[in-house]
């Protein structure tokens, strides 16, 4: 499925794509494919595309383009041919036989990048499941693998080459075992989520395209509101799929309007279905969130397509109906006034302190808009209620009078119901 180079220099590749039915996103998807190749330390030497009504069932491309690839290989001594679409096993074998090039499709390239980026045990398991599911209908015999390795190209970097020597039944058993292990990890995460829900702490999930600035946004919020020493920062880097593991942080504001903020794996066009399925558990933070923040690279000319693709991925995992803020990031790179809000959109720069403060204020306005202004009278012997309100709600004033403790506070609806016997006025 995947590959490993024994060379110190990057592998040289040609990227190819079929433009079907005047797809408006085609040019951008090819640009993405080039960036994916670079992210995997592959040098793109040439690019070809072809307008067709449908993919060639045998070779993906037409005969003329295949001959062009053969000529380009002779001129550039290429290592790889990378396609912009997922191929069948027979298409891969046919192209390799004709061109004498190792073939990677878009799916296998993305899976390989994920295999390199995965850090946590959970992410590694998810990648292995997706790799094996991709591999299953494309099993190749051991002699083919040896030929690849003699060229300096191995197979299946993430899962290990010995797995390709297993028969179909053993691979299916391996998938079942990994899914069981993943389910056990999911139960642990669900327990943590249940505990947070019991504490009535609302949650917010950052979602969006890869490299849009989600991790940077999270880190800047942490820096301003939680941790000036940056001890809780998450990894961030200007590259595709820098973050695969979900990071969860509690953001504590001065008025007890605390919330849980999570950073999730980034999306991209034509994200493999098996990968989305495998990462559903990682995306559970988004599934269970009270509010989604879709972070968008506003400086990218294709940002509207990014929003559309993200929405489609969210729809595929049934979380498209949640309240969402569209956060147009990197406004410092475009000629636009920022920070600014309009409706459910905010234009901001994750590197700008005023922007981060406005973003957090926007989150507050959405999460806590149902809070009720109340006045409570708490008996002196109910000090535990006072402590709860001070720790969990926005308490504005505390006054000790003859009949008890008079408190002015903004309460969440659940607290209004919980302490209704002590509320003397509300509005």
TrEMBL record:
<comment type="subunit">
    <text>Monomer. Associates with the 50S ribosomal subunit.</text>
</comment>
<dbReference type="InterPro" id="IPR006073">
    <property type="entry name" value="GTP-bd"/>
</dbReference>
<keyword id="KW-0479">Metal-binding</keyword>
<feature type="domain" description="Hflx-type G">
    <location>
        <begin position="202"/>
        <end position="371"/>
    </location>
</feature>
<keyword id="KW-0175">Coiled coil</keyword>
<feature type="binding site">
    <location>
        <begin position="263"/>
        <end position="266"/>
    </location>
    <ligand>
        <name>GTP</name>
    </ligand>
</feature>
<dbReference type="GO" id="GO:0003924">
    <property type="term" value="F:GTPase activity"/>
</dbReference>
<dbReference type="GO" id="GO:0046872">
    <property type="term" value="F:metal ion binding"/>
</dbReference>
<protein>
    <recommendedName>
        <fullName>GTPase HflX</fullName>
    </recommendedName>
</protein>
<feature type="binding site">
    <location>
        <begin position="208"/>
        <end position="215"/>
    </location>
    <ligand>
        <name>GTP</name>
    </ligand>
</feature>
<dbReference type="GO" id="GO:0005737">
    <property type="term" value="C:cytoplasm"/>
</dbReference>
<dbReference type="InterPro" id="IPR016496">
    <property type="entry name" value="GTPase_HflX"/>
</dbReference>
<feature type="binding site">
    <location>
        <begin position="241"/>
        <end position="245"/>
    </location>
    <ligand>
        <name>GTP</name>
    </ligand>
</feature>
<keyword id="KW-0963">Cytoplasm</keyword>
<dbReference type="GO" id="GO:0043022">
    <property type="term" value="F:ribosome binding"/>
</dbReference>
<dbReference type="InterPro" id="IPR030394">
    <property type="entry name" value="G_HFLX_dom"/>
</dbReference>
<dbReference type="InterPro" id="IPR042108">
    <property type="entry name" value="GTPase_HflX_N_sf"/>
</dbReference>
<dbReference type="InterPro" id="IPR025121">
    <property type="entry name" value="GTPase_HflX_N"/>
</dbReference>
<comment type="function">
    <text>GTPase that associates with the 50S ribosomal subunit and may have a role during protein synthesis or ribosome biogenesis.</text>
</comment>
<dbReference type="Pfam" id="PF13167">
    <property type="entry name" value="GTP-bdg_N"/>
</dbReference>
<dbReference type="InterPro" id="IPR027417">
    <property type="entry name" value="P-loop_NTPase"/>
</dbReference>
<keyword id="KW-0547">Nucleotide-binding</keyword>
<dbReference type="Pfam" id="PF16360">
    <property type="entry name" value="GTP-bdg_M"/>
</dbReference>
<keyword id="KW-0342">GTP-binding</keyword>
<feature type="binding site">
    <location>
        <begin position="329"/>
        <end position="332"/>
    </location>
    <ligand>
        <name>GTP</name>
    </ligand>
</feature>
<feature type="binding site">
    <location>
        <position position="215"/>
    </location>
    <ligand>
        <name>Mg(2+)</name>
    </ligand>
</feature>
<dbReference type="InterPro" id="IPR032305">
    <property type="entry name" value="GTP-bd_M"/>
</dbReference>
<keyword id="KW-0460">Magnesium</keyword>
<dbReference type="GO" id="GO:0005525">
    <property type="term" value="F:GTP binding"/>
</dbReference>
<feature type="coiled-coil region">
    <location>
        <begin position="161"/>
        <end position="198"/>
    </location>
</feature>
<feature type="binding site">
    <location>
        <begin position="349"/>
        <end position="351"/>
    </location>
    <ligand>
        <name>GTP</name>
    </ligand>
</feature>
<comment type="similarity">
    <text>Belongs to the TRAFAC class OBG-HflX-like GTPase superfamily. HflX GTPase family.</text>
</comment>
<dbReference type="Pfam" id="PF01926">
    <property type="entry name" value="MMR_HSR1"/>
</dbReference>
<feature type="binding site">
    <location>
        <position position="243"/>
    </location>
    <ligand>
        <name>Mg(2+)</name>
    </ligand>
</feature>
């Amino acid at each position: 499925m995947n590959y490993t180079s024994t060379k110190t220099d990057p592998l040289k590749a040609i990227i190819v794509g079929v433009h079907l039915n005047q797809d408006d996103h085609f040019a951008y998807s090819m640009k993405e494919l080039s960036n994916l190749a670079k992210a995997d330390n592959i040098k793109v030497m040439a690019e070809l595309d072809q307008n067709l009504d449908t993919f060639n069932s045998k070779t993906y491309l037409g005969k003329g383009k295949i001959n062009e690839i053969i000529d380009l290989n002779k001129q550039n001594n290429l290592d790889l041919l990378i396609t912009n679409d997922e191929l069948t096993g027979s298409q891969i074998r046919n192209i390799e036989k004709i061109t004498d090039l190792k073939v990677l499709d878009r799916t296998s390239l993305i899976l390989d990048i994920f295999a390199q980026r995965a850090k946590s045990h959970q992410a590694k398991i998810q990648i292995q499941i997706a790799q094996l599911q991709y591999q299953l209908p494309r099993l190749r015999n051991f002699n083919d693998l040896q030929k690849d390795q003699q060229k300096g190209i191995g197979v299946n970097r993430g899962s290990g080459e010995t797995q390709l020597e297993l028969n179909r039944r053993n691979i299916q058993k391996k998938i079942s075992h990994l899914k069981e292990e993943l389910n056990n990890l999911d139960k642990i995460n669900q327990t943590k989520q249940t505990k947070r829900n019991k504490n009535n702490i609302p949650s917010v999930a950052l979602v969006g395209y890869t490299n849009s600035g989600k991790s940077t946004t999270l880190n800047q919020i942490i820096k301003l509101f939680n941790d000036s020493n940056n001890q809780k920062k998450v990894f961030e880097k200007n590259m595709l799929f820098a973050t695969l593991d979900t990071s969860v942080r509690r953001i504590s504001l001065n008025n007890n309007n605390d919330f849980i903020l999570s950073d999730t794996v980034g999306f991209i066009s034509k994200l493999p279905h098996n990968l989305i399925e495998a990462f559903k558990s990682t995306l559970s933070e988004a599934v269970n969130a009270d509010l989604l923040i879709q972070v968008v690279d506003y400086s990218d000319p294709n940002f509207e397509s990014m929003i559309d693709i993200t929405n489609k991925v969210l729809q595929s995992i049934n979380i498209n109906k949640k309240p969402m803020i569209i956060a147009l990031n990197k406004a410092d790179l475009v000629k636009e006034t920022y920070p600014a809000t309009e409706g459910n959109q905010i234009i901001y720069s994750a590197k700008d302190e005023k922007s981060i403060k406005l973003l957090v204020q926007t989150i507050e306005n959405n999460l806590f808009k149902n809070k009720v202004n109340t006045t409570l009278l708490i008996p002196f012997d109910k000090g535990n209620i006072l402590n709860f309100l001070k720790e969990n709600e926005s308490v504005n004033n505390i006054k000790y009078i003859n009949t008890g403790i008079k408190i002015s506070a903004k309460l969440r609806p659940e607290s209004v119901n919980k302490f209704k016997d002590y509320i003397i006025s509300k509005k």
